[in-house]
User: What shape does this take?
Amino acid sequence: MKIGDLEVNRLGFGAMRVIDNDHIWGEPSDRKHAHKVLRRAVELGVNFIDTAESYGPQTDETLIGEALHPYPKGLVIATKCGLARPSPGRWDADCRPEKLRQDLDGSLKRLRVERIDLWQLHTVDPKVPLEESLGAMVDAQRAGKVRHIGVSNFNLKQLERARKVADLVSVQNKYSLDARSAEDVLLHCEKLGIAFLPWYPLGDGSALRLARVKKIAQKVKASPAQIALAWLLAKSPVMVPIPGTGSIAHLEENVAAAKLKLSKDDLAALE
Assistant: This one.
């Protein structure tokens, strides 16, 4: 699978959950364990890791740099910009160009790189024209600080508006077996050959409790989570799920889902 000119495996890792608290705030409860989870992901063949400046804030990127730098050849790290975290429960849009430039300089330093592989606008800021936010990102790309640009939490209209400003290689929206409001965006990404990175690919666990998911899991001797991930991988050729966890056991279970091939009948039953 290609994201721009970057070759990645179909199943990535969302690093947010290595900060193991509900608000993704501050430090992980066990820093060494967080490092172990990140290293284990790479050992298992994951070569695409997604993070954001706002996770912690800033802690998640630091953990990745501590655990994995110098990075193995072929490892792609994506990060996001454009959210402010004034307190644990707040995720406020702030896509002013000066904030994005500040986010980028911090991300480069924390990740210990000279160029971000994939830099994503985390959200749409109603107070700032998309053109201004993305224009700042394109400037950073031209300056050599960013390789590729993506967007997150965009609807179809916003995506098309954004594509007039920047050459987008990815869209990261909420999508799972039981949360498909971004279906139109996914189909559009397919037409354009843009990678679709579903965040929250296992949802809040409700999809894993569905009778049809449990039934197929039992039939093929897999976990419900593996069924949900295998369904995503089969759903679209541009899909790159990024399940996240702070548990090594769950990480290993999730990565194994990439080898699971569901039959046409099973896929139809999941629809």
